[in-house]
Design a protein that fits this description.
The complex is a heterodimer. By secondary structure, chain A is mostly helical. Chain A has ten helices and no strands. Classes of the chains: A mainly alpha, B alpha/beta.
Amino acid sequence: MSSVANAVVGLFNGFFEWFGELGIFSWRVLTAAITPPYEWRELIRQLDEVGSKSLPLVAMAGAAIGIVISLEARYSLARFGAKSMFPATLVYSVVQVMGPVITGLVVSGRVGAGMGAELASMKVTEQIDAIEASAINSYRLLAATRILACILMLPLLTLATDACALLTGWFAQSLAGPLSFHQFISSGFSGATFNAFLPQTFKTAVYGLIIGLIACFQGMRTRGGAAGVGRAATSSVVLASLFLILSDVVMVKFILVFFS
Amino acid sequence: MATAYDITTKQAATGQDSPVPVIAVENVFKSFGSQRVLNGMSLHVKQGETLAVLGRSGTGKSVLLRLIIGLDTPDSGSIRIHGKDIAGLALDRLGEIRKKMGFLFQQAALYDSLTVAGNVAFPLEHHRREMSRSERSDRVTQLLAEVGMSGDFEKMPSDISGGMQKRVGLARALALEPEILLLDEPTAGLDPISSGEIDELILKLQRERQMASIVVTHDLHSAKTIAGRLALLNEGNVVIDGTFEDLEQSNIAFVRDFLKQS
């Protein structure tokens, strides 16, 4: 019985310790990020790493969800005699729900794992210590640049996902029946306001913060050689995806309250 | 008006007979979990002096270097660099002190995404921003020539041997012209010829630059070659601190055992 109690206490301790360390890490990154010298070159490299190199993947994911939603929506709307609602259904479901979440999860998988593993590998081979020993702030050089790149790139990647999904969704629909692109767009966006789309797109900056922060934190606190690197990569993806979905619950409610 | 601290610091930076040692470790304790690694250790190193820290594996030699450069913090005791206690300093203040130190890691810890030249240029790019690209390139060329790596600028760290990696690590450690050099097992894992070459290199650098150096090693031959003073550690404390002759003449059982086994 006492061993079960010890395990539960240990679990609670670990839980609060993790959040405490994350808080300290976040504070160090924040103070490093807002004070000079700024690491512009590394930031540009990370923007390329997160943005350009994720673009093909999110574009393909967007294209795939566009086709899937198109096929599913056509069938469902036809059952209720609401086929004319197809463009708006596709536009709203892609831009408001699927585009941001799919982009977040795809980037979390690609970038989160990559960053987690890269930083963990640098940690276990003492490269991060070497950076610190050279009087260079590793929070500024490694973490702040990566997190900022994720924050800046996620909304742009989401726009790319949305564009690809709408294109393939329209294309799939146009194969089933006559529907010009102009008709699709004007019908899909008729009556739409900026408030309906912009908050949903820009909330992905928060996804970027979560992905970058978790990946850098898990990577830079790694211990234990190759096994530690593997654990850091896995935990980066799992935790970033989990927190991303949980944050979406909060943000959707927030957006509904303040932007509807 | 110069304060007493300013005067002693300046003296420490310029004179071998300075009253303030460049590195002063005073009564330092350090534990990791329940394991006590350093147990009230005290050490001093003056300008131009090389101290070799010897001891069995796990006696806290590498931890000592990590404490001196501020990568870890002591549980208690003080570590003073040029008379200034580094414990509890903010990262940026600590950075200013670290700029005066060069650190060679046991496994060299070269940045694996950068070339040999990129590794050496790295500290210069961050701390000598006023240098033009050609000046930086000239400095990298000079540093790599000094450590005998003239022909390998564009190689990646994974493409060179362990001994070559240590040379590059040494060139990187010297990039900012440090006043203090900390070397963690510079000859570990190297063949006798490469070890001898690294020892020669360290001796040459010491003669030319007159840095305060601490060399952590378990290689007694290497320690005898490069250091004027040796400190032997056991169970987290200094058993004896003196010249090699002092060690040879010691009656302490641990010292005699260590010399016999080495």
